[in-house]
C-alpha cells in the first residue's frame, strides 16, 4: 500500500499550474504571455519609460493643440515695448514667460507653436521610413539570393549618401519647403537603417519552426510574411524607429537653422535658434528656450527608445 504522505507525480503536476499562475505577485490568466505582453508588463515598471511617455504625451498635446497652452500670437511683434525683453519667470504660461526676441515676438508662443512642425516632421519621417524600409528589408531577407543581393546593393548606395548633406541637396531644389517636402526629403534618404535591421531580423526568423510548419501546411507567401514573420521580426525595428524619431527632429531643426527647412514665415525651433545667434551673449534667453525645448523633445524619444530596447531584449532585463 503506497504511503499516503507521499505525493504522486500526477498530483504534483496537477498542483503545479496553480502555483505557476502567481507571477510577479499577481494572478496570471494561465495563458502563456507573448513577447509584447512581457515587454508591456516590464515597461510599466520602468521609471525611464514612464517619464519619457509623460513628456511625449505633453509634447504631442502641445503640437496638436497649441492654443490650449498660450493665447499669444507668435507672429505678432511689438518692437517699441518688447524688443529683447527679458523673461518674466513669475508669469507662468504667459506671453512674457520666456521673454521676447529681436522682433518683439513672444518666445514662449513661438516655442509652443514650433513644436507642431518639428514633431510632425519627426513622426511623418519615422512612419515612412519604417513602412518602406521595413518592406524592403523583409523582402530581401525572406527571398534571399538574387533579390537579396539586388536590394542590399540599393540599400548600400543610399546608405553611402551623407544624410544631412543629401537632404540639403534635395531641399535646395525646392523653393517652397512645406512640411510634406521636408518629410519626403528626409524619408528618401533615411530608410536604409530600418531596411538593414529588418533584413537581419527576417533572416533569423524565417528558419523558425512555426514558419516551416506554415509552409508545410501550404500557407501563401503573403500570409507567412505578414502573419508569422513580421510580428516576430518587428521588435528591433520598433526600437530603432523610436530612437531615430529624435534624430529626424534634430535633422529638421538643423536644416531650418541652415535656412533649408522651414523659413521665418513658419514656426521652427531651428530657425528661432538661428535668429538668436546674434544675441547669444547679451540676451541668451532668445537661444536657451528654443534650444532647451528641442533638447527635451529629443531626449524624451531617446529615453523611450532605450526603455523599449531593454524591455524587448531578454538579455537586458
Automatic annotation (TrEMBL):
UniProt-annotated location(s): Cell membrane
Classify the main location. Answer: membrane
The name this protein carries in UniProt is ABC transporter permease
Native species: Streptomyces flavofungini
- Which UniProt keywords are given for this protein, alphabetically ordered? Cell membrane, Membrane, Transmembrane, Transmembrane helix, Transport
Q: Which residues form the signal peptide?
A: none
Q: Which family does the UniProt entry place this protein in?
A: Belongs to the binding-protein-dependent transport system permease family.
What is the topology of this protein in the membrane according to its UniProt annotation?
Multi-pass membrane protein
Q: Domain (ABC transmembrane type-1): give its ranges.
A: 115-305
Amino acid at each position: 500500500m503506497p504511503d499516503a504522505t507521499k505525493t504522486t507525480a500526477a498530483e504534483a503536476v496537477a498542483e503545479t499550474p496553480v502555483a505557476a499562475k502567481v507571477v510577479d505577485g499577481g494572478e496570471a490568466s494561465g495563458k502563456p504571455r507573448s513577447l509584447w505582453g512581457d515587454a508591456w508588463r516590464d515597461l510599466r515598471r520602468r521609471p525611464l519609460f514612464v517619464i519619457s511617455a509623460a513628456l511625449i504625451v505633453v509634447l504631442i498635446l502641445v503640437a496638436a493643440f497649441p492654443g490650449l497652452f498660450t493665447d499669444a500670437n507668435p507672429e505678432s511683434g511689438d518692437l517699441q515695448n518688447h524688443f529683447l525683453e527679458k523673461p518674466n519667470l513669475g508669469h507662468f504660461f504667459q506671453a512674457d514667460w520666456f521673454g521676447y526676441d529681436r522682433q518683439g515676438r513672444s518666445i514662449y508662443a513661438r516655442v509652443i507653436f514650433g513644436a507642431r512642425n518639428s514633431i510632425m516632421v519627426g513622426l511623418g519621417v519615422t512612419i515612412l521610413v519604417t513602412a518602406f524600409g521595413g518592406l524592403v528589408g523583409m523582402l530581401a531577407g525572406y527571398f534571399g539570393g538574387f533579390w537579396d543581393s539586388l536590394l542590399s546593393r540599393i540599400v548600400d548606395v543610399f546608405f553611402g549618401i551623407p544624410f544631412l548633406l543629401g537632404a540639403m541637396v534635395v531641399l535646395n531644389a525646392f523653393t517652397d519647403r512645406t512640411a510634406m517636402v521636408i518629410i519626403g526629403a528626409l524619408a528618401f534618404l533615411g530608410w536604409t537603417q530600418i531596411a538593414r535591421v529588418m533584413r537581419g531580423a527576417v533572416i533569423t526568423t524565417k528558419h523558425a519552426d512555426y514558419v516551416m510548419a506554415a509552409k508545410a501546411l501550404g500557407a501563401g507567401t503573403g500570409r507567412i510574411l505578414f502573419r508569422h514573420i513580421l510580428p516576430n521580426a518587428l521588435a528591433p525595428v520598433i526600437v530603432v524607429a523610436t530612437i531615430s524619431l529624435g534624430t529626424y527632429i534634430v535633422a529638421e531643426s538643423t536644416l531650418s537653422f541652415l535656412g533649408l527647412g522651414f523659413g521665418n514665415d513658419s514656426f521652427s525651433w531651428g530657425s528661432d535658434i538661428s535668429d538668436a545667434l546674434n544675441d547669444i551673449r547679451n540676451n541668451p534667453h532668445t537661444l536657451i528656450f528654443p534650444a532647451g525645448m528641442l533638447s527635451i523633445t529629443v531626449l524624451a524619444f531617446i529615453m523611450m527608445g532605450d526603455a523599449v530596447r531593454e524591455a524587448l531584449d531578454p538579455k537586458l532585463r
